[in-house]
Specification:
- The complex is a heterodimer of chains A (about 550) and B (about 150).
- By secondary structure, chain A is an alpha+beta fold.
- Chain A has helices at about 10-25, 30-35, 65-75, 130-140, 155-160, 170-175, 255-265, 285-295, 305-310, 320-330, 345-355, 375-380, 395-400, 425-440, 470-490, 500-510, 510-525, and strands at about 30, 55-60, 80-85, 100-105, 110-115, 120-125, 145, 180-185, 190-195, 225-235, 235, 240-250, 275-280, 335-340, 365, 370, 410-415, 415-420, 455-460, 460-465, 495.
- Chain A is built from 17 helices and 21 strands.
- The longest helix of chain A is centred in the last third of the chain and has 20 residues, at about 470-490.
- The two termini of chain A are about 25 Å apart.
- Classes of the chains: A alpha+beta (about 550), B alpha+beta (about 150).
């Protein structure tokens, strides 16, 4: 049995014995075979001593057990690392940031406490998965949707706390924004509720988000300040219909006007689903096209001339590519718009959107079928399930060995900077990242388009390969660090990252001599003086480890 | 995988935590073990079967002694029989499961891998990527602590 740093073997054994007494011996994990499940499957330190490891794991079922675990940890100065279901692939998985921590695995706290159809809300524990919640909704015939990420096997609580995103209407696909009320076990073991949950007898915990006074919910996301044991969410009322339409534009410069109009429509609530950007000429698939490609059907061969032109288009294209598109009838850009709502309304929204985009010379439109909801079995076979609130594992087929991917990598780490919602920023980011990729000899980055998970800003999501070769991983980690720095110099910051890079990313958020980090550290020292909770998570370290972090 | 989850595993594991076994690509095993771990189950037997350019197949097996023992013996069988190896292996695993169940296996017996090579097993390119045979079940932790 490996002990946490700074904890004696005797103290560790005593703490483990107390955990076993609390939750049952069967639910305290100390064997190597069990603890293997708490490694990061996509660790960029694969096979290296820096790979994160857990000294033990404990799986409670009640809030009282969580409180007791926290109190014991304080007594022995034992670092804890809570996880919900521990997916988070590409951002660290379920491995603790600080090696030797005891993972508090909340998977057995899997009660769906309420789904309120009239209020379109729910209250769940952290071990509830998207699959569980979807099944509950289906079995009870409730006319609400839960917005799901892709893959959808994780926990709504865990994904929201890591500020993940989904695919339906904007207010729901931002998973943390969709939450309403938390219950948290604080680092001293005390139980706290936020928002209206702090008012005894209130029936508005899942109705009014901010309660009274400073709104602190955000402090428990990407956080080291407590263990969330209950979380409320607003759910999406099942819409009457869904309509998708695609805007096709022919020129490279059209991206400027496309983005401007898109922002106008989205910010005004005219288009309410997730915009889906692609480029047939540059070979950038939309999410819909990705979903279709997962079926591993034979793909039509790409014209050699087009491939050659793409190779010279790392900054977004050239006149020759544009001319090729005109000759072959291939669009430069496609913007997929999604509309959820009453059938008459979504038809009108699409019509209005077409009017706005028609100001771009030569623009064309393609309209998808109007889908009446719920989906029929036949319709389900042809859609991207997460856009309809249905959890799926199909995303894994992208990384699996297939005819189009005969040599898959071991895993990936996401590099995901936030950039402004402007075409100029898209071109600039591509230019900067492509130059960096050449400098650091990376197998990425062709010209890419950002995603629109969140309103008002773009996000680029680049997958850095994790391999089984240590030298390659070392090279990619070094490049990742340099990209964080380069992005920071341009004002582009990661929204989330794996433990290997969390300190580096926080260092970029440095306004006024790192005032944000210093504030976090002040809070950390005040509420967690023993420094036991989620040590080092997102770059925030307890006092005793700050110099060495 | 999604279909298997919705139609088989989710309903099954809601009723009863029963072991499952299979022969799949690694990606499927990876997903299944993660899903199973939510229910306190994990891989208790694992065999990796890697085709080589020569047409031979390398087997590396982690698991109960009796299964490994049978696998090694199997490597000496005739080439005709080799074509039936997935069925053959599944049969051995099932027999072992019937005999002792997948719990209660002394960890010392699981800790050492067995290796074998089957000549010419995939000479007809019957499979090109590594395949994995596995059993997912609740492990016997009280024995693993010894």
């Amino acid at each position: 049995m490996r002990t946490p740093p700074g904890v004696s073997a005797a103290d560790f054994a005593a703490a483990i014995a107390e955990f076993e007494h609390m939750v049952g011996r069967e639910w305290v994990f100390t064997s190597e075979a069990d603890l293997d499940l708490y490694k990061d499957d996509y660790s960029p330190f694969l096979g290296e001593p820096e790979a994160r490891w857990a000294s033990a794991a404990v799986a409670p079922t009640t809030v009282e057990e969580v409180q007791a675990i926290v109190r014991t940890a304080n007594r022995y100065k034992l670092p804890l690392y809570p996880i919900s279901t521990g997916r988070d692939l590409g951002y660290g998985g379920c491995a603790p940031v600080y090696s030797g921590s005891v993972v508090v695995d909340l998977k057995r706290m899997n009660r769906i406490l309420e789904v309120n159809e009239a209020n379109a809300s729910c209250l769940v524990e952290p071990g509830v998965s998207y699959f569980d919640l979807y099944r509950h909704i289906e079995e009870h015939g409730l006319k609400v949707w839960v917005d799901v990420p892709d893959p959808g096997w994780g926990s709504p609580v865990g994904n929201a706390l890591d500020r993940g995103g989904g695919y339906t209407r904007a207010q729901f696909r931002n998973h943390f924004d969709a939450h309403c009320g938390l219950e948290v076990v604080l680092p001293n073991g005390e139980l706290m509720r936020t928002g209206m949950g702090a008012l005894p007898g209130a029936r508005t915990w899942q109705q009014y988000k901010s309660g009274y006074g400073p709104w602190i919910d955000g402090m428990f996301s990407q956080s080291c300040y407590g263990i969330v044991t209950k979380m409320g969410f607003w759910l999406m009322p099942q819409p009457e219909a869904f309509l998708s339409g695609t805007v096709l534009a022919a020129k490279q410069e059209d991206l400027h006007e496309l983005v401007r109009v898109l922002n106008l429509l989205e910010n005004g609530g005219v288009t309410n689903g997730m915009p889906d950007l692609g480029s047939p000429l540059l070979g950038i698939l939309t999410i819909e096209e990705y979903a279709r490609s997962m079926a591993d059907l034979p793909q039509p061969p790409v014209d050699r001339e087009l491939l050659a032109l793409r190779d010279k288009a790392d900054s977004g294209g050239n006149a020759a590519l544009e001319a090729y598109g005109r000759r072959k009838g291939l669009a430069y850009w496609t913007f997929g718009l999604k509309f959820y709502g009453p059938a008459k309304v979504v038809a009108a929204q699409w019509e209005y959107s077409r009017e706005q985009f028609s100001r771009i010379a030569g623009v064309q439109f393609r309209e998808g079928p109007l889908v009446r909801l719920p989906l029929t079995a036949q319709e389900r076979a042809h859609v991207h399930w997460p856009e309809f609130g249905i959890p799926t594992l199909n995303m894994f087929s992208i990384g699996a060995r297939s005819s189009t991917n005969p040599d898959p990598t071991h895993g990936h780490m996401w590099f995901s900077p936030i950039i402004p919602r402007e075409a100029q920023a898209v071109f600039e980011a591509n230019r900067v990242f492509a130059a960096a990729a050449r400098e650091f000899d990376l197998p990425v980055l062709r010209f890419s388009l950002p995603s629109c998970y969140w309103e008002r800003a773009f996000i680029f999501i680049f997958g850095f390969p994790v391999t089984t070769d240590i030298k390659t991983n070392q090279k990619n980690r070094a490049a990742f660090h340099k990209l964080i720095r380069i992005a920071g110099e341009h004002g582009w910051g990661e929204y989330r990252t794996a433990p290997a890079f969390q300190d580096a990313v926080l260092a970029e958020y440095s306004f006024n001599r790192h005032a944000l980090r210093r504030f976090h550290e002040t809070v950390k020292d005040a509420i967690d003086p023993n420094g036991i909770m989620s040590v080092g998570r997102y770059g925030i370290w307890p006092k005793r480890l700050r110099r060495t972090s | 995988m999604t279909q298997l989850w919705y139609s088989e595993l989710q309903p099954l594991w809601r009723r009863e935590l029963r072991p499952i076994a299979g022969l799949t690509a690694y990606a499927a095993l990876f997903c299944l073990e993660r899903l199973a771990w939510d229910h306190g189950m994990r891989v208790v037997y694992h065999g990796a079967h890697t085709p080589l350019a020569s047409g031979d197949v390398d087997h590396v097996v982690h698991g109960p002694w009796s299964v490994r023992h049978h696998s090694k013996r199997g490597s000496r069988r005739s080439s005709d029989a080799h074509r039936e190896w997935p069925t053959d292996l599944a049969d051995r695993i099932a027999r072992q499961a019937r005999k002792s169940g997948w719990t209660g296996l002394p960890p010392a017996l699981c800790a050492v891998a067995a290796c074998a090579r089957t000549p010419g097993l995939c000479a007809e390119r019957s499979f090109e990527q590594p395949l994995h045979s596995w059993v997912i079940a609740r492990p016997a932790r009280h024995l693993e602590r010894t």
